[in-house]
Amino acid sequence: MPEIRKDPVFGRWVIIASERGLRPNDFRLGAHQDGSGHVCPFCAGNEDLTPPVIYSLPGAAGSWRLRVVRNKYPALTSEGSSDNRREGIYNRMDGMGFHEVVIETPDHGSRLEELSPEAMGEVLNTFILRVKEIKKDPRIKYVMIFKNHGRNAGASLMHPHSQIIAMPMAPLRVAQEIDGAAQYYLERGTCVFCDIVTEETAFRRRVVAENPSFLAVAPYASRFSFETWILPKKHASHFENMPENETGALAEILKDTLRKLSVSLPDLSYNLIVHTMPVREPEAQHYHWHIEIMPKLTHVAGFEWGTGFYINTVSPEDAAEILNSGKTFKI
Predict the structure, then answer these.
(1) What does each C-alpha distance from 279 to 34, 170, 233, 237 come to in angstroms?
(2) pLDDT 10s per residue in the chain (331 long)?
(3) Is 3-171 a domain of CATH 3.40.50.10810?
(4) Which residue, 129, 135, 184, 291, could crosslink 230 as a Cys pair with Cβ 3.0–4.6 Å?
């Protein structure tokens, strides 16, 4: 069973999950199906290679068009307790939580931005449905939705999929972001993310895409080249409370943003993360859910690890201009 240990210096939690090292890896094998007999467990017809389905949407002729399964090599498992246990100066708890895989399409060679707007909307609605179901477990405090696309972003399988990990605490990174937003609200009386939407809508030079409900921008202090955020224009702190009639607009801008990134940055690897309030917290005026997309064009090196500073070699203004021009960026 995995376990969660607390760093006594920084206060951050670390998951120790040795079985994760056993998971299959397309990039290590070099192919979807090669001479060694490796077969993608997420492709239609290979359902017996994954744990049983939790949720699915039916496709044509008895097939499926989306399905959700437990991760076969989970970072956290549903067994165990969320109780914190002391061991001398250290704190630990069972690796309790949930780890699910959202298989976005049966088509192995597809990409998220290549899905139809309707299919993209179904992926987003599935995220919301799963969060609402998972948070019924009182042990769960935070649910993270993320996607690793490409080898450099940490993906192990090429088949289009996203992941959901639910945990018994809010991660330090999340807590720091929420605390920063709370401090801004205390000082100015407004939500920092709402102010970002207002500022970027007026400035325009960092806008990547827009529709009546959402804004995609290259953030002012981008940590990574071509980093892009998608923010709802209307204040809301919890992603899972998004009205159903807005998922179509989110699908539209997400599809447009990923398409622009893939055109300007061929063979792009990226991490996509939904930032939201912890599920046990009430609606907050100081925090605003959003999606962050972080292209992996360079590796974080010694200076960044040692200082916490990031060095970005493409300004957000230039990044937005390149993405909106449709030009290919030469790394």
Answers:
(1) 43, 9, 21, 10
(2) 789 999 999 899 999 987 766 666 665 554 444 444 568 999 999 999 999 999 999 998 889 999 999 999 999 999 877 788 899 999 998 899 999 999 999 999 899 999 999 999 999 999 999 999 999 999 999 999 999 999 899 888 999 999 999 999 999 999 999 999 999 999 999 999 999 999 999 999 999 999 999 999 999 999 999 999 999 999 999 999 999 899 999 999 999 999 999 999 999 999 999 999 999 999 999 999 999 999 999 888 888 888 888 999 999 999 999 999 999 998 7
(3) no
(4) 291
Three-state DSSP at 274 gives strand
Return residue ranges of the chain for CATH 3.30.428.10: 3-171, 173-325
Residue 105 backbone zone (phi > 0: left; psi -120 to 50: alpha; other: beta): beta
CATH of 173-325, one of 3.40.50.11270, 3.40.190.170, 3.40.1280.10, 3.30.428.10: 3.30.428.10
Which H, E and C letters describe 80-108, residue by residue? CCCCCEEECCEEEEECECEEEEEECCCCC
The Cα 170–Cα 184 span in angstroms is 20
> Which of the following is catalytic: 149, 161, 288, 290?
161
Q: Note if 290 is an active site residue.
A: no
Spatial CB neighbours of 142, under 8 Å, sequence gap ≥ 6:
166, 167, 169, 170, 171, 174, 278, 279
Total residues belonging to the chain: 331
What are the CA-CA distances from residue 174 to residues 20, 88, 113, 122, 141 (Å)? Answer: 23, 27, 27, 26, 12
Task: For residue 74, give the 3-state DSSP assignment.
Answer: coil
Other C-beta atoms lying within 10 Å of the C-beta of residue 266: 10
How many separate helices (H) and strands (E) can be counted in the chain? 7, 14
CA distance 28 to 297: 20
Rounded CA separation 39/162 (Å):
19
